[in-house]
Amino acid sequence: MSKNLLHVENVTMQFGGVVAVNNLTLDVCEGEIVSLIGPNGAVKTTAFNVVTGVYEPTNGLVSFDGKTIIESFPRGKMKKAYAGENRGMYTHRIVRTPDKITKLGIARTFQNIRLFKSMTVFENVLVAMHMRKKSNLFTATFMLNYKEERAMRAEVEHLLSEVGLLDVRDELATSLPYGMQRRLEIARALATKPTLLLLDEPAAGMNPQETDELTAFIRYIRDKFGVTIFMIEHHMNLVMDISDRIYVIDFGKLIAHGTPEEIQNNEVVIKAYLGGSDDV
Amino acid sequence: MNKKRVCTLVDVLVIVLLFALIAFADTKLNSFDILAKILQKGAVFALIAVSMNLLNGFTGLFSLGQAGFMLLGAYTYAIFTIPTTEDRLAVYKYYTMTMADGTETGGLVQFALPVAAAILLAGLVAAVFAFFIGLPVLRLKSDYLAIATLGFAEILRAICQWKGLGVLTNGSNQLRKYPYFKSILPYFLISGVCIAIIALLIRSTYGRAFKAIRDDEVAAEAMGINLTKHKMIAFVTSSFFAGVGGALFAMYQNTIQAKPFTTTLTYEILLIVVIGGIGSISGSVIASFLYIACSEWWLRFLDADGVIPGVTRNGFRLVVFSAVIMIIVLFFRRGIMGDKELSTYRLLGGLTPKKKKEVSGK
Fold first, then answer.
1. Residue B353 reports pLDDT greater than 70
2. A143 vs chain B: nearest CA distance in angstroms?
3. Could you tell me the domains of chain B?
4. Could you tell me if A80 and A212 lie in one domain?
5. pTM for this structure?
6. What region, left, alpha or beta, does residue A114 occupy, with left being phi > 0 and alpha being psi -120 to 50 degrees?
7. How far is A49 from chain B (nearest CA, A)?
8. Which of A110, A119, A251 is nearest to A182 (CA)?
9. Closest Cβ–Cβ partner in A114, A132, A133 for B218
10. Which of A119, A123, A137 lies nearest to residue B233, judging by beta carbons?
11. Which of A168, A193, A218 is the last residue of a domain?
12. Which domain holds residue A141?
């Protein structure tokens, strides 16, 4: 097995008295496509939000590329209210805002598409270049960074041509058909040059044909950009087709993990989620 | 691409021509002419409106502190430019200080800066205050941010009127006798340069980051944009130019006092921004001149008795003006320009029929 890229360890996320994510441990290795599945309300997106720094976990640790990026333990009100496991196992507090996480090389897309509405396709991707700029406020304002700006634009153009969106570069992002908006969101995430790409229900609301295209597209970007992919998805065809490994969670708890075949034949998973093998 | 370049050249030419026209007008108008006053005030308010648009329209931060930063700019300029000791003594007559050698002097500041340096300092003081106000305030969102900035602006005004700072601010008395431009051109030049800088900032990579924050904060952060830092940059820059605008406003008024820098002034500027179009620099500039001309000049005739017998009287123009604004807000919600910019390219593009949009859904 190749190098372990993302390591989530004993992550518990508690909101008030509700334990949303309960002691979640999972690993994503370099070059893999890993899926996270589970019924509605299984807090898959919450798990993503913990990894990307949107929420600070109540307890637990996340490491990326061998380095601890997020760590927390029950503090303040949670000291008393904490209902999860492994109390006292973590003693440091490391928090990072989402932009810092992105800079480390974890990019993400969103369940409900979040494109920049007033911008064109080209500008949407160009924004992602901002975080790697070398210019400062002064040089950028007075266009002394024109070389960098030109390089940025060339890079975006190249990226758009690779994902097949160059024809629509000057269209408003929101005027694109749904499938292309999804693709644009993935392209925008790729523009931050991630090593790990988190896709939150990329096939949500897509018809079978679009889903097939997406399946091919995800494989294509994995090979082309060398990114590791960790995704949440409900389309079982898609999940079983491209995943190397699958994690199943229900009510915030990991109930199974394994290869697609193992998951399809797992009694617990069938009971909790798949609901009968003929469905798969 | 080439056509675009030609159009930009035309834009630049038109702007240069406008400035030439202003320079020409300077030779014809005396400084008390209503047109001269309108143009001066219009230029000043254009700068302040654009600075507010940078925050409200381009970064999506609904801030209402502009009057406070104008006040800081205006006071900084006035305090540091009163030229001679005699003038200072006359201005600060209630706040004189006795020196070691027994002579009486007015106020705390005993020197005068050159005009250009004082204008720059006005902007810097506003920017520094903005930084410290921004630290707590920028954590808030939408309405809460508006209320907090509004509060800070009012606090600044109250502090300026405070007796304890009288040696600096002259309490609630006027500051006067500082140098000011009599002609129109300097207002246009300073305001023009500042607006150009803001426009350049907005079209730079930072401007794109601001717009990303406006469109979707969560997505912007996921794209590696540091929200705190970029909101602060927008807030401080906007306040800097509001401070410079305040200094120009002080010049335009000849005398300055904390009293007019109320929330009403902020609303007036907000109105200009809304009428011009939230997210449009050229819109703000156009709206500023229209607004000032309307409120101070074009509707003046309604103040005379007997234009419509029994109806028009002193102050009636304000009634009509309010009605006009209501109509604009009701029927032109996106303002004059929406979020577009006025340019030759767009004007020409507007004349030729638009190409049909084709999006291939491959």
1. no
2. 7
3. 2-260 (1.10.3470)
4. yes
5. 0.91
6. beta
7. 11
8. A110
9. A114
10. A137
11. A193
12. 106-193
